[in-house]
Amino acid sequence: MILELKQIQKSFEQPRSGTIQVLNNINFSVDAGETVAITGHSGSGKTTLLSLIAGLDLPDTGQILLDGENLCQMKENQLARFRALKIGMIFQQFHLMPHLTARENISLPLEILKQDNIRRRVDEMLEKIGLTDRQHHVPAQLSGGENQRVAIARALIITPKLLLADEPTGNLDIQTGNKIAALLFDLVEKENKTLIMVTHNLVLADQCQQVWKLEQGSLG
Amino acid sequence: MLWMTLGVRDLLKNKGFSFFFVLNLSLGLAGFIAIHSFGRSLDRHFDTNLKEILTADLVVAANRAIAAKDLERINSFLGNDYTHSRQVSFYSMIRTTIRNQAHTRLVRVMAIDNSYPLYGAFEMAQGSTPTDLQTRPYVFMSTDTAYALGLEPGSGKNSTLDIGEQAFILKDHVVSDPENSLTSFSFAPRIYIGIDQLDRTGLIRYGSRIWVSHFYRLAPDTDADQISKRLKDRFSQLYKDQPPYYIYTSNDVNRRLGRLTRYFTSYMGLVSVVTLFLAGIATAYLFRGYLNLKRKEMAILMSVGGSKQSIWFYISFQLILLGTAASFLATLASFFIIPAFPMIFKGLIPDNVILSVSPSALALAMGLGMAGSMIFCLPVFIQIFDIKPLMLLRGTPDTATSWLKQVLSLLPGVTAFVMISIYAAGKLKTGLVFVGGFTLAIGVLFLIGQGFVQACKRLSQSRTPVVKIAFRNLYRNQWTSLSIFVTIALGTFLISLIPQVQNGLQTEIIKPDGLKIPVFFLVDIQDEQKAPFVAFMEKQDAIISNLSPMVRGRILKRNNQPFHQRSDESRRRRGRRLEFNFSFRETLDVSETITQGDPISTEYWDWESNTPFDISVEESFAKENKIALNDILEFEIQGIPFTGQVKNFRKVRWNSFQPNFFLLFQNGVLNDAPKTHLAAISQVPMDQRQQLKNRIVDQFPNISVIDVTQMANTILGISNKLSLSIRFMAWLAIAAGLISIFSIARHEAWKNRNQINLLKVLGSEYPAIRAITLIEFGVIGFAAALFAILLSYGFSFGISWYFFDNLWQINGIISILILILTTLICMGTALSASRKVMNTKPIHLLTSGT
Ligand SMILES: Nc1ncnc2c1ncn2[C@@H]1O[C@H](COP(=O)(O)OP(=O)(O)O)[C@@H](O)[C@H]1O
Ligand SMILES: [Mg+2]
User: Fold this and answer.
1) Residue A11: inside a domain, yes or no?
2) Parent domain of A173
């Protein structure tokens, strides 16, 4: 078991409607190498759940165990490093560094975390995502699909145990989206990663081993 | 290393930001560094030329001859190995007849002996020495003076000038005289004669205003200050705390010169602080825009493992880099600014000062640049700590930095501002007063700005969409509007205030309302000359507008306490006044008003009576010497004691050029005292002036005639020079203000780019969108300038009320010009700043992924 959520509660104060309970007693676990899709209508709390798993936000109550360690009890800097080493994240809006080239964007986590063999690893990764010939282009010069490929590569380069994706194809047309999804699943399978993906796309969700639906704060 | 590389690359990618940041900060720093270097150069000049400036190690001076016994006493303190020189100087009229045309002119006669100067030297055109002056009636004067008088060196008629009763011959031109190392500015040109020729002029009699100096050059390694102190103690003892001599060393001179330098540099320094402050605001604004752009990137960096410390380092490194660049640019710029100072201050500072950018100025520039960019940006900088990678999932939430943190982040800036102000002012009090005034001005502008924003809210109810949007933008972005308002208003305020004050000053000097500024001011009229002089003037085409007796004496005691406390060490060092002038008048002059107490009695004071006579004391003199109403003052005039009581305080407009005195006595007190008279002559037709002057001097050779118009022009010249430098600094301030408008407008346009594009999509014409920007920044510029001008009216009114006695004039044309210009410049700047964003195609709305 790589990830375990126990009795997670999360609510937000909202200026007008008061406190809203977004997540209500969430329990689940994910085994290493599993792929999980989280669906639900807009505003159901998918992103909130993902941000908790990523350790970007804290639950009101409950425990999140990643690789056996409780995220909720870590100090901020410790958590940041732990997260950077264990979790790769892919966003709907890519979030690449605009002034860095594709290659530099991919190598950035390795350099920040002071890892070895940066050159070789980035070369391999570029090969895997098929962008070797475009590695010296900056995001503005690449298409949406290419940018998302760079983002996936950046998430995978640190060889994380867990990959989190929030609507990774949400900003792409169907065709490109499918291609990206295919690449993602391919890489996850080859490298035996665990993937948790938020998506509206039911076709995509069906490709995952587990599909959970968020409704009224609970997983169904 | 990674973070540094990233930092440098980022700055290079954001060229606009880097460029404006550096330009802006360096603009603020340049003035500051230039003034610092200027002050340092002056100090250094005075330091290295101290002895040459004083021409001696020790000077004992008095406004009368020093008693032989006292000279012996002095000698006994000096040891065996010293040289001595004596000098008598006084103001006098000289007469020349060049091509049958008579001329008279006030000069400062310096009667010197052979050994003058003890340090330094004369540089003469034909190599004459002071020895040449002793045996024959020769004079030295500068080429300029000789030219002004029409004199040529030689032996003919064109070389002759009369000083008192003696004809002198111009022997040689002075190329540089010992006093030149200080300042070439003087009301009357200096001419040199031999001290042995002094008696022949017949000018030295009782009451003549002379200044006798004894210069001493001591053996090397002698402690002149120690000797000076012992001499002072000795004479204090001998004369019961009323020593008749001024004793000073080169260190005393240095202190006095230091004050002089500070006077020049402090007010310019303060204006440069304003520039620095405005530049600081603009810099912080630029940085805010930059950081907003960077927020997402920082979140990304954090999400891939960048720690907060690394991010912090990454941004600080950029700031330090920019700050360093700004320091370099500022230093470079100051190299160009500094040579302007000798031009601005020509005549006021020594001609031969070597101006350079001092190492300390460089260090200051570096420190200010690096620390400054950090300090200015700190309030924005702390927002970094609120950035969380969570925003990558959530979009940009409004991270509200806590109230306490924001206040704390302002603290270093405020502290630095106060410290720099005090430093620039050179005095704690001046610095604090400046900070107070500045805070007040900002506060008032801020409040007005608040009102302005509220007014915008009202105006946004307009039906015209363009107007509606423009005003809505203004009040929605309250803080931005406020800070633009305050920045522009502050710059405009300065620009507008300077001509205002100067206007008042000029009006005051040239034609004071209700006052007749005299044409001539006459001093040293002997008592026995009074009647003949009045009779003489009756025959002339002029009137005596004021004729005042003047008696010299000492103030011994105030309420039975010695007037000069011995413990009054600081005053002592500054060289307190030993003697004062007393006068009497039946009615107060128009330039005088009683501010407290009753008019002094018009009754003739009976010498035999035991009641003290009435005294009227000038306000500032009373304040400085802590004199209160009804205080009993004891005087000594020519060895005779008198006792009087303070009846009233009097305010005097000194720049009325009327004979005015600190102390006026009741009728009768001064009648029998030996005295001279001062007179003011008015209503002399322009073409009669020179002749009248000649006639007075012919008839009364010992009377000095001061040409008031000429003097007023000299003062005006100085004030012009000073205000020129302030104006220069004020323009720097405005430039900083404009850069801040530019950056703010750019930032605003960028922030509103979606709104702009949306408007385009919704079918708004480009001109309509441009109109919004124009209205927005035009309105803000206009309002800020309008209120700043009104405020400057208030301030200048206050200044003229305080300093120039209510003389106040509005220069309407300049104000309107400033108003229009500010508005136009604001509009233009905003338009050019937002052009890039405005020209983007609406398609960006669809593609740009933020
Ligand atoms: N920081 C926050 N403050 C207040 N409410 C929030 C915050 N973040 C999310 N919410 C609310 O929580 C609910 C779930 O949001 P989210 O997790 O983004 O939904 P989803 O990703 O499924 O669309 C929404 O109603 C949203 O408004
Ligand atoms: Mg979501």
Assistant:
1) no
2) 34-59+72-219
